[in-house]
Design brief:
Layout lengths: L2 H14 L2 E13 L2 E15 L2 E19 L9 E21 L4 E4 L8
Antiparallel strand pairs: 1-2, 2-3, 3-4, 4-5
Length: 115
């Protein structure tokens, strides 16, 4: 997804639906050292015929390498160490639907999206 396509989607949503909230949020990842901020994402929350939806367009560094650290001792887990690019960014697009029973956002499978 490109920045231009994201702007078109936001314009279409603004014309058709009532916007509840929009803004920026941090993209966080769990690492061996705890949570780390990878980038930022712009989001928009609105009420649609499908229910309450949240669309998120984010920018974060490209993953260049993954290093797996295993332990051969019983009871200890493995961890993954990521190496991120300093120059190259990738765009992400995610859609979420509000789940009333869990009182949380549930990600919608992206296989059905057509860009």
């Amino acid at each position: 997804m490109t920045e231009d396509k994201w702007q078109q989607i936001k314009e279409n949503i603004t014309k058709r639906f009532t916007i509840e909230e929009e803004g920026m949020e941090d993209l966080l990842a769990e690492t061996g050292e705890g949570q780390v901020k990878l980038g930022e994402a712009e989001f928009i929350i609105f009420e649609s015929p499908l229910g309450r939806l949240k669309l998120q367009f984010g920018k974060k560094p490209r993953v260049e390498d993954k290093v797996y650290h295993y332990s051969h001792r019983a009871g200890t887990g493995a961890r993954v160490e990521y190496k991120f690019s300093d120059e190259e960014l990738v765009n992400t697009f995610k859609a979420f639907k509000w789940n009333e029973t869990d009182d949380d956002w549930k990600e919608i499978d992206a296989e059905g999206f057509n860009f």
